[in-house]
Write a structure and sequence with these properties.
Rossmann fold; about 45% helix; 21 helices; single chain; about 650 residues; about 15% strand; alpha/beta; 7-stranded mixed sheet
Length: about 650
């Protein structure tokens, strides 16, 4: 309350007109001081002439202040630009005064206005120093008053470079900030021990628990223009036992109008700690390929589908058909796109399993390109709901692929998953069967069928990140299925961009896989998320090992046994060279699977294992079908009786 009271009253009384009056008084006093300095601090000058000259000088400076607007700045936010305005005002006033004195000497207008030019020069220097000093004195006084009645927190800035200095200035100049910067941290030995803005630069090795507790440091702000993700992760993990939060300033290109604001300082996000560099596609043909085309996106309200829609909306397509059976998420996406000024799209609530209804959409809209992202993807749920997994992931994909051929769609881009590689669960096997059907359809040479295969995406529906966040909000514990379990991760926008790029890179029949970097240990991910929430492991939030879920792998793969890769024009995007398929046999078996699935029979899992021989269930009741299969594959032993 006291802080608000001070702020309101200072706003009320410290108006620009008060500043103008104070500035005029300051230059008046400076004029008297300049005479005293010129005459060696004695009164050996005509005092009466001084007081006759004073109002003229005051008027000249008043005009200069009004022209330059130096009095309009917020005094409590005084910075380099304000000092520059003061310098302009003093220079302008001094030039006007010198010009007036020279003219007066030439024409002898007013005898009393014969000011020595040395006085004007001395006065300009004193005025500049006085005006600047008065603003900084007021700024310091204001900050001391505000800080006196507010609880400040101590922070340190990691990085004593240009970004660190900009962050320091933004923080210290922010009026609503109750933050005190105690120092910079830097690894550069040349900077250690020096001062920047009066603030010491400290070696990172000095950062110990005792030091942080003694200085009562609550936050460390990482202000390095391009910090490596490994270095950032090491920093966060190095502070995991300390009671501090690690924050980061955004890249320069994300600053508002090229200026950094305190509000842009954010907590380190889990994607900042991924052990991989984001894929930069450089020159892309997406805009050229989408221009004037009718695009259909299935699963358009899901995590990947909705981001594909958002990215497509920025291009000059003819129309965009967004299909999803989830009404509420589709409505939310519709409202979001409208608010962002996108209107050339058609949201449709429909089920891709309904082939007749999907056929009407193909007839009505005649799509040129299809991005098929609709799928069931939760491994434990699908493990014992194989009917639904087959119905959506296999039958739904088959429906769309058949319709794409019959309606002469130019390209069909299928969004697959790394769980389709050497699958250990029904969900992964169903996606692999869908991949195989797509490969079979490519033999028709009418539609270009392209498959994209990648790992987990951060923040997607059902991923570990939202789950861990909810568990942390509830006070824990975080549940991890196995201490050694690992996964590949990329961000949703990046994954969606790759799907778009692959769609236009492909000529038909390819399975594109992406460089996902190194796999991430989920246990370490959980510990980092606890730390990023400002909590401690295990004292605040513990991690509970629950055991592998049905069908779950310890690690994911991007290539199946017997597969290898071929390069593309981008080193981060590769083509999986898959084993040759017996297309007639595969198509026959997939048709058999679709028919058998109509009878809700668990034996369909056996058919899936026949179609995908590498499908071996893991940690699941469905392992019994592997035992049956092994018995069938073993040669029967025939006993021979002696004659």
């Amino acid at each position: 309350m006291i802080k608000n009271y001070l702020t309101e009253n200072l706003h009320k009384y410290a108006s620009k007109w008060v500043v103008l009056v104070i500035d005029v008084l300051t230059i008046s006093i400076s004029f008297i001081l300049s005479y005293l300095i010129r005459f060696n601090l004695t009164l050996d000058f005509d005092v009466e002439k001084l007081f006759l000259q004073l109002p003229i000088i005051a008027a000249v400076f008043l005009v200069a202040f009004l022209i330059t607007g130096s009095y309009k700045g917020f005094v409590r936010h005084t910075g380099v630009k304000d000092v520059y305005n003061i310098f302009n005002a003093v220079c302008l006033a001094s030039i006007l005064a010198i010009f007036a004195v020279i003219l007066n000497r030439q024409f002898d207008w007013v005898n009393e206005f014969t000011i020595p030019l040395s006085i004007i020069i001395i006065h300009s220097l004193i005025s500049f120093v006085s005006l600047t000093a008065s603003r900084y004195v007021f700024k310091s006084f204001y900050k001391s008053l505000v800080n006196q009645f507010s609880v400040s927190k101590n922070i340190m800035i990691y990085g004593a470079g240009e970004s660190g200095i900009i962050a320091y200035n933004a923080i210290t100049n922010h009026s609503g900030s109750n933050v005190k910067v105690l120092g910079y941290l830097d690894d550069d030995k040349k900077k250690v021990g020096k001062r920047i803005n009066g603030t010491s630069v400290i070696d990172r090795d000095s950062l110990t628990g005792d030091f942080l507790r003694k200085k009562n440091i609550s936050d460390i702000i990482v202000a390095i223009h391009r910090i490596d993700s490994n270095a950032l992760r090491d920093l966060v993990e190095g502070l995991v036992d300390f009671p501090v939060q690690v924050k980061i300033i955004p890249p320069v290109h994300d600053w508002i109008n090229g200026e950094f604001k305190v509000s842009q300082i954010k907590n380190v996000q889990i994607e900042d700690l991924l052990n991989r560099m984001p894929i930069n596609l450089g020159e892309s043909k997406i805009s050229e390929e989408l221009k004037g085309k009718v695009v259909m996106v299935t699963g358009g309200a899901g995590s990947i589908g909705s981001e594909i829609v958002r990215q497509i909306c920025t291009y000059q397509y003819q129309s965009l058909i967004v299909i999803d059976q989830a009404e509420s998420p589709l409505y939310d996406l519709q409202q979001e796109l409208k608010q962002n000024g996108f209107h050339n799209f058609i949201p449709i609530v429909a089920d891709i399993r309904d082939k007749n209804r999907m056929n009407t959409f193909f007839q009505e809209h005649k799509p040129d390109i299809i991005f098929h992202a609709a799928a069931y993807k939760h491994v434990p749920l699908m493990e014992y709901n194989s009917y639904e997994a087959i119905k959506i992931n296999v039958v739904g994909t088959k429906n769309l692929a058949d319709l794409a051929i019959s309606h002469q769609v130019d390209k069909f881009v299928f969004v697959s998953t790394d769980k389709a590689v050497n699958p250990t669960n029904v969900m992964g096997a169903s996606k692999r069967i869908a991949e195989m059907y797509i490969s079979c359809m490519q033999q028709n040479k009418k539609t270009k069928f392209i498959t994209t295969r990648f790992g987990n995406v951060l923040g997607s529906n059902g991923s570990v990140i939202p789950l861990f966040k909810r568990q942390i909000e509830k006070g824990g514990p975080i549940t991890v299925t196995h201490k050694d379990i690992t996964r590949y991760f990329m961000t949703i926008p990046e994954a969606s961009q790759l799907v778009l790029e692959a769609g236009f890179m492909g000529k038909g029949g390819e399975i594109f896989i992406f460089d996902m970097g190194e796999s991430v240990k989920i246990f370490d991910l959980a510990k980092n998320m606890i730390k990023l929430s400002g909590l401690q492991y295990p004292s605040d939030i513990d991690i509970k090992i629950t055991g592998l879920r049905p069908g779950e792998k310890l690690y994911e793969e991007l290539l199946a046994n017997g597969e290898n890769t071929l390069p593309t024009y981008h080193k981060k995007i590769m083509i999986s060279k898959v084993r040759d398929l017996d297309y007639k046999k595969v198509l026959s078996k997939i048709d058999e699977l679709c028919v058998a699935n109509l009878f809700y029979n668990e034996s369909t899992v056996c058919l899936m294992k026949e179609i995908v021989p590498e499908f071996i269930s893991n940690n699941s009741d469905l392992c019994k079908f592997d035992e049956v299969k092994q018995q069938k594959d073993q040669p029967s032993k025939v006993s021979v009786q002696p004659s």
